[in-house]
Amino acid sequence: MSDNSRPWIVTPLLESGVLSKAAGCRIFLKLENLQPSSSFKSRGIGNMVLTSIDQHKQDPSDQRPLHFYTSSGGNAGLACVTAAKSLGYKASVVVPTSTDEWTVDKLYASGASEVIIHGDSWFYADEYLRKTVIPKAEECGEKGIYIHPFDHPAVWAGASTMIDELKEHMPEKPDVIICSVGGGGLFSGIMQGLDRVGWGEDVQVLPVETLGADSLAQSVAKGELVTLPGITSVATSLGAIRVAEHAFKEAQRPNVKTVVLDDAEACAACWRFLDDERYLVEPACGVSVALAYDGRLKHYLGKLSPDAKVVIIVCGGSKISLELLNKYKQKYQEPSEALAAKYRS
Question: Cα separation of 150 and 185, whole Å?
């Protein structure tokens, strides 16, 4: 398919004067929050949708209508619905019972055929989708296509396209790339893209998580995949209790350093980023932006030269509003200031 039919866009890469001054080096923002679904998920999920359509067309004997299905309490679901609708197909989402009414309404507004609420967590929502929802759809004559939120080669390949854009916009390779990690689809794509453009061993990559959603960091520390008992972080978009095995393998490269920050740090970065750059992002994104503030980069990487180029993937996310951000500020402003003081001391 042509680039015009891709359900994602080329996003800007902007150097931030405010964040550069705060960090003491050159901070560049890859604005994935501007994707059609408001997050980087448009790339990976969109690519998996495109791949599935192409595969279906290779079998002219199968004339069943395609219907895309995913399990997600937020961004992956929105990306699947947005991508499918833009290409003329139906999409439905199974969400866990913890999903708020606002998110369900947004999925419908984005074009979801159906939003099914089932299970106490993503794991059970996903299981119900694969074992019950899709088989029932196929009994009714549809071709049900399962879209995994993060653990699939097509998802990683889609996410990797941002590195091709990065090389075009920044011919001299960056020194550091910072990205948030949930299940690991974005991180896996970044590592794949770095290899493809020849930067695989030369760029320091910092995958960042919040405490309580840190399955990657715990897995790296123990040298084996760790399954969290549950997600206790407010950054629920990072809520994979077990990171993808591929992401775990990629995280063991010598140029990768995992970082875990507190919810208070992630939320504080959200309201500071809104003030500094006029972008409203959720805590799952704010946790990466937080590294530009209060000396955190120096803490985790040592002193960087003023000319060092650091790219932050502004992954975006839709699970945020001004009302919710104000609630976070009331709850976390004092503890966030105490944490910031430790880095500055």
Answer: 4
Count of CA atoms in the C-beta half-sphere (13 A) of 307: 2
Q: What CATH number is associated with residue 101?
A: 3.40.50.1100
Point out which residues pair with 302 in neighbouring strands.
none
Residue 4 has pLDDT above 60, yes or no: no
Q: What is the average pLDDT value for the chain, to the nearest integer?
A: 94
Confidence (pTM): 0.94
**How many structural domains are present in the chain?**
2
Which one of 147, 168, 203 terminates a domain? 147
Q: What tokens does 147 get?
A: 């879209």
Cβ within 8 Å of residue 156, ≥6 positions away: 44, 185, 188, 189, 192, 246
d(CA 114, CA 129): 12
Are 237 and 299 within one domain? Answer: yes
Helical spans, DSSP H, in the chain: 17-23, 41-57, 75-86, 101-109, 122-128, 134-139, 153-169, 185-196, 215-222, 245-250, 263-277, 283-289, 296-301, 322-344
Per the CB < 8 A criterion, the answer to whether 236 and 320 are in contact is no
Contact 71, 149 (CB under 8 A): yes
Q: Are residues 174 and 199 in the same domain?
A: yes
pLDDT tens-digit map of 33-81: 999 999 999 999 999 999 999 999 999 998 999 999 999 878 999 999 9
What is the rounded distance in angstroms from the CA atom of residue 23 to the CA atom of residue 269?
13
